[in-house]
Amino acid sequence: MYDRKLATRAGRNLEALRAEKPLIHNITNYVAMNYTANALLASGASPVMTFAHEEVEEMVSLAAALALNIGTLTPYSYESMLKAGKRANALNLPVVLDPVGSGSTRHRTESAKRLMQELSIDVIRGNASEVLSLAAEASKTKGVDAIHSADEAADAGIVLARNSNTTLVITGEVDLVTDGQRILYVHNGHGLMGTVTGTGCTAAALIAAFMAVDPDAVMASATGLAYFGLAGEHAADRASAPGGFQIAMLDALYTMDSGLLVEGAKIQS
Amino acid sequence: MYDRKLATRAGRNLEALRAEKPLIHNITNYVAMNYTANALLASGASPVMTFAHEEVEEMVSLAAALALNIGTLTPYSYESMLKAGKRANALNLPVVLDPVGSGSTRHRTESAKRLMQELSIDVIRGNASEVLSLAAEASKTKGVDAIHSADEAADAGIVLARNSNTTLVITGEVDLVTDGQRILYVHNGHGLMGTVTGTGCTAAALIAAFMAVDPDAVMASATGLAYFGLAGEHAADRASAPGGFQIAMLDALYTMDSGLLVEGAKIQS
Amino acid sequence: MYDRKLATRAGRNLEALRAEKPLIHNITNYVAMNYTANALLASGASPVMTFAHEEVEEMVSLAAALALNIGTLTPYSYESMLKAGKRANALNLPVVLDPVGSGSTRHRTESAKRLMQELSIDVIRGNASEVLSLAAEASKTKGVDAIHSADEAADAGIVLARNSNTTLVITGEVDLVTDGQRILYVHNGHGLMGTVTGTGCTAAALIAAFMAVDPDAVMASATGLAYFGLAGEHAADRASAPGGFQIAMLDALYTMDSGLLVEGAKIQS
């Protein structure tokens, strides 16, 4: 059922990440900032979190990928994202967008859509309701929680990916990755990941890190998610509640090696 | 000594929280933001932390309660609190205020007082020196640490609660809850809670979560504090230093069930 | 090889910190804010993190030391640092600067240099590349990671310390502390400290806390770093990956007593 070649690619990407230690520029929300930085460090990447208008263009030009996240968006940080994103586009650097809470308020939905219009975005990662909100006005999310299953959103996602010329990642019990042509499913993960704030944001940042070593957005997304989800499974072997689990996940990201990842990756093509 | 009916109410409120998963809108400080979000998630609530002027009114209208915290207040976030608070008042949603550090600088004392004037606030939670600063100009807090005992502050608190038509929560070794008529004391808690930053802020957010399921502010505050304090006691069974304790508290919030809470709640009427 | 008198001084400083619980005013970055506050609390200090223009001058006048950190600098927080720093200077309070990422972007290098010109700064703590960037335009850091060894930077550091009339701390495998006349080396620490975000920022804040009890900047810096590094060594006895290690460090800062510190401090004069 799971694709052996893709599991091997996941392992290779992890090795490349550890070897290259790419600088990942994050413009992200205040809640997840610390956890995302620690997860990137534990994974082998080099995180920098800055949104200062004076430096985002220079900083992103030193980076290997840019991760944008609208979790606590302000007019100032929206402008930071535009500046950094345009420079990243000019330099052909991968750009990942996490439209946190899109669909819950007009501000979030419209901001995410404007970023999609103004920038060339390689990967958009959200839960089903967030992604659906980008496809249509129909859905209303309950805060940042998912109200649709990945299944329900898959069709809309494929159309949206095709129309917006991007790779869409809909995370849920099973993650869906599609560029409108190819579709991959990632079966790694654990329910406790939903009990820790910022795990979705961190997944998006890790996809950016994997894109720094694998230019194929569908492959980078699926292999990054397999790595992150498998770390969640390993963490759940050691912790059964959110506090210990959040710490065990950082440990699992750090101790995972390519052999374990190849063995445990559950990517379905 | 402890009130059995109130302990039962604590257990019922926790069950309601787990069943309803209310969205709690937090406008809080940058230090406690992550821990507060994780504690709310571990407790069963659905946290959202946003202060963007473009969306706070829409976001709070999706929420079941609003928690305000002036720990790292700026003119921008003060305005966010006013906007969200006025909408919450219009919608009859519970509003909780944590006047962090009130009494230490004029800015904090005056900002807390202005929020009390501009908004209808259901619960104010602070340590004794913070609450005393709202009652009079006399006290000066040493940073955000308490310099008065809950006992010393009780009388001033009762008068302040009556005059400002709100419920006051003064946390300390024993917590005091009063609306100026009724007085409850909560004896749960552990000294290690004072060694972790943001536990007070998190207590206030949990009170907001309990108000989402129990409209009586005195009852919601006392039962929420009993839950939080008992989680601290359970955490202290497993950890004896601040790092492990901070993680064990999240675990205890998550693993606590209504039976344990009814058994362990120490609310005195 | 290690200086016994300096180890004794480290122990005495830790005891003074626990006895006096000095208020440390931090204007720091959003990523490290929570961890720094928890580390200061675990150590015995009283942290406050505020950058509001309305109160930074009043707050710093209540504090025993000021710690500045440009990790997520904005025009607003730069102004906060100037205001607080000038008041601290007028009150003869110790001021510590952490020039995070100086050398990586012009904005950071210039902001750090301007703070050095506008304020009298007692201690500057950075890795070798950050400190070198303040001495010359030559170096480019790779994000916030060190690209030069402490050895390579020592000579430039000594000259910079002398010219700018400050104490320089260059952290790395071995930490260097110099005021341009005296040089101390601190051999405490563990490689896992580099896998947790904000440990460098926290080291700078702890130096500020030690300066609150020991006015000699070279002594306060070296003894503070020995304490922090030894906590890292103790943490590494209990945890072998970044998640558990980050928590174990807070525990080690808390459980360390002056006897353990005197025994374990590795300060070389």
Biggest sheet statistics of chain A: 9 strands, mixed
**Beta-strand percent range of chain A:** 5-15%
* Strand order across the largest sheet of chain A: 2-1-3-4-5-6-7-8-9
Number of strands of chain A: 9
Q: How does this structure look, described?
A:
The structure is a homotrimer of 269-residue chains. By secondary structure, chain A is of the alpha/beta class. Chain A is 53% helix and 14% strand. Chain A has eleven helices and nine strands. Chain A has helices spanning 4-20, 33-43, 56-62, 75-90, 106-118, 128-135, 150-164, 199-211, 217-238, 242-255, 258-264, and strands spanning 23-27, 46-49, 65-69, 95-98, 123-127, 167-171, 175-178, 183-186, 267-268. Chain A is globular. In chain A, 67% of the residues are buried. Chains in contact: A-B, A-C, B-C. Chains B and C meet through α5 and α10 of B and α2, β2, α3 and α10 of C.
Labels describing this entry:
homotrimer, 269 residues, alpha/beta, nine-stranded mixed beta sheet, 9 strands, 53% helix
Question: Would you summarize the structure shown here?
Answer:
Chain A is of the alpha/beta class and 269 residues long.
Topology:
The structure is a homotrimer of 269-residue chains.
Chain A: H1 4-20, E1 23-27, H2 33-43, E2 46-49, H3 56-62, E3 65-69, H4 75-90, E4 95-98, H5 106-118, E5 123-127, H6 128-135, H7 150-164, E6 167-171, E7 175-178, E8 183-186, H8 199-211, H9 217-238, H10 242-255, H11 258-264, E9 267-268
Parallel strand pairs in A: 1-2, 1-3, 3-4, 4-5, 5-6
Antiparallel strand pairs in A: 6-7, 7-8, 8-9
